[in-house]
Amino acid sequence: MNAGLVWVLVGLGFAVVTLQRRSLAVGLVTVQALVLAAVAFADARGPHDLLAAVALVVRGLGLAAFFLLVIARTRDPRLVRAIVPPLRRVALAIALALMLGWLIPSIGLVSRDAERGVLTLVACGLVLAATSRATVFQVLGVVLVENGLALAALELPGTSWLIEVGVAVDLTLVAVVAGVFHERIFTEFGAGDTDALRSLRD
Amino acid sequence: MTDPETLAAATVVVPALVAALVWVLPRTWVTRTALVGALATGGLAAALTAVALTGDRPLAGPWLVIDVPGGLLVGIIGAVGLVSVLVSPAYLGAAAGALVDPRRRERTYYSALLVFWSALLAVPLAGTLGAAWLLVEATTAASALLVGFSGRATALEAGWKYLVLTSLGLGVALLGIVLLAAGTPEGGLGALSWQVLPTYAGGARSALVVYVLLLAGLAAKIGWAPVHNWLPDAHSEAPAPVSALLSAALLPAVLLVAWRCEQGLEPVIGVGPARDVLLVFGLLSVAVSVPFMLRPMAWKRLLAYSSLEHMGVVAIGLGFATPLALAGVAVHLVAHAVAKTLGFCLVTPLLAHAPEAARSPVSGIARSSPVLGGAMGLSLGSLAGLPPSPLFVSELLIVAGGFQAGRVVTATAAAVLLALAFSCLVRALLELTLGEAPARTGPVSGSASASGSVSGSVSGSASGSALPGLRGVGVLVAASLVLLLALAGAASWLPASDLVDTLMKGIA
Q: Most buried pick, A78, A105, B254, B396, via CB within 10 A?
């Protein structure tokens, strides 16, 4: 994958970290998955690689449709603000990405840019999940991490189709269960806001 | 396919098929079908365990591995799963509310429970790290639904926390897997098979990074400190039969995956650093559990913190990795499963007897209900490691294993922490059984939710014999007592047995 595309994916990741509108964030995460799928199709050398590319497309579009449906059914009466302001979240993601880059000097992928891109996307996902209050954004954090790992799998020297297909299946399962929880949390508390989930403490 | 392979496939496929059947059959058939399917699965798991424990050498293919540790875990998961399904009708009869449409309550519960059980049974049999990761992630989806099954606000909180934290943790583990695949000469599926891990060519430092990422990610699922936050909430809010499966089966199954990673990467990283990581997680988990267990807390929450302690003890045993320590680990896993399953199965009669037990610590149960108090005492006394509990013997073996390994400081620290944990649980045991009993007039009839919101009238005798779910649990109490005593006896000859010799060799 060329460096430009890698940094497009990273740019989309940072954009998701700054957003507060759920539907927009779902759109950007989907674009990210489709860019990955396009690269997978372009680099495909056999039926297994094609299967991995198809899995990326189905996963990306399927999750987008599912998340948009969930959002449409649970319109928040007010914007659920994140725990940390957007710019500070970006700073946190950059700091975590640099730390991961220092801890993991080489992943062994085909390109060095892809290695940096993978770690940055994982950092963006972790920061998004940790600093968001909105339930949908926390799940999008998991999706961002998985998109980063999908990039890594595409850039592996050997066959990576099993990782791509496996991630697609598992991510879909987790997202569906998260959707069920989100709807119940919305019904129970009137908003998809994890701030309401603070009663279990020791 | 050879016979063990067919047996392994059947053990995993039968509960999945029964889950699908339960989903489509008429409502009146749901419970009976689930119970019959559970009996069949339990039988298959027992047969597979016998094959794995008596086999000459491990059967390791590209997809499947049948070895002694895997067989032991399949036996534990099979037995705990069977008990969980068998006591579920009592839970569903007593509890109110559900995450899903009430008309689909029972079929959703049994389907999710059987899918969860099926995925769990497959984890110890997975022939590659990739497949094991996929199966562990699959258990997350099914079990998160079950954790939040009651639909209460606290259950939603626990289920959500469990889903997000363990998914992120498994994402970190997947990063480790990708790194591993990049540094292993054999590409594709073969790169992630357990036997190929020692051929990792990325160098010792890179292997250590991979290993730490894998263990840190899996730790979130095992419930090791400091990434254990979901564990007390999920175990205390899930339906009691599910809590038993989470605590006694899921945590050890994921721990086996972590141990297989340690065994596979140890030749590259070096024995010292690989085992040190396990010891750090183990000591930290026991240390973190102690201050929580010191405080009076609700029964299920106390059992949850004891899970944190016991997974720490197992990690310490695996970190020492001497014949004594591994014998201790084997005994510990089985005895913990027996005592913990019994403890969680007593929740339904306990809530009927003392509804406040759902949220608050209870005392003097043995005074107001000798049968229930005695059963709870057996569970907690065993978990505390009160002699002659097999957990006392296993902890002794693990600490002795530490001295055998020459890790005097670590073994001493482990002994001190275990003594502290023991005193916390014995204190809780005394308070629970012999403490001052508030006035209770007998079992509560009607609908009791797991949260303790019980509607109905107080009636019947105070002996506890009429408590819902207790009569069925009586068989379990007797079986647990026999098993625990047998385990305590078996623990003395285990260190010199072939079983431990096989554990020392691993798959490779």
A: B254
Please state, in angstroms and rounded to a whole number, the distance separating the CA atoms of residues A94 and B403.
45
How confident is the model over B209-221, as pLDDT tens digits?
Answer: 999 999 999 999 9
User: How many whole angstroms separate alpha carbon B459 and alpha carbon B229?
Assistant: 39
Say yes or no: B148 contacts chain A, CB-CB below 8 A.
Answer: yes
Mean pLDDT of all residues in B436-450: 53
In a domain, A58, yes or no: yes
Beta carbons of A89 and A97 less than 8 angstroms apart: no
Tell me what percent of the residues of chain A surpass a pLDDT of 90.
60
Which member of B160, B209, B297 has the closest CB to residue A104? B209
Contact with chain A for residue B458, Cβ under 8 A: no
Suggest the residue from B166, B168, B233 to mutate for an interface test with chain A (most A CBs closer than 10 A): B168
In which band, very low, low, confident or very high, does the pLDDT at A159 lie, cut at 50, 70 and 90?
A: low
Overall number of domains in chain A: 1
Full 3-state SS string of chain A: CCHHHHHHHHHHHHHHHHCCCHHHHHHHHHHHHHHHHHHHHHHCCCHHHHHHHHHHHHHHHHHHHHHHHHHHHCCCCCCCCCCCCHHHHHHHHHHHHHHHHHHCCCCCCCCHHHHHHHHHHHHHHHHHHHHCCEHHHHHHHHHHHHHHHHHHHHCCCCCCHHHHHHHHHHHHHHHHHHHHHHHHHHHHHCCCEHHHCCCCCC
Tokens of B198: 């020692």
Minimal CA–CA distance to B91: which of B163, B31, B6? Answer: B31
Distance from CA of B231 to the nearest CA of A (A): 11
Answer yes or no: is A79 within a domain: yes
Its domain, for residue A139, covers 3-193
**B186 burial type by CB count under 10 A (0-12 exposed, 13-18 middle, 19+ buried):** middle
- Check: CB of residue B60 under 8 Å from CB of residue B124: no
Considering only residues B381 and A76, tell me which one the structure prediction assigns the higher pLDDT: B381
pLDDT digits (tens, 9 = 90+) for A100-129: 998 887 777 778 889 999 999 999 999 999
Q: Model confidence at A69, in pLDDT bands (50, 70, 90)?
A: very high
Q: In this predicted model, what pLDDT tens digit does every residue of A132-156 receive, in sequence order?
A: 999 999 999 999 999 999 998 888 7
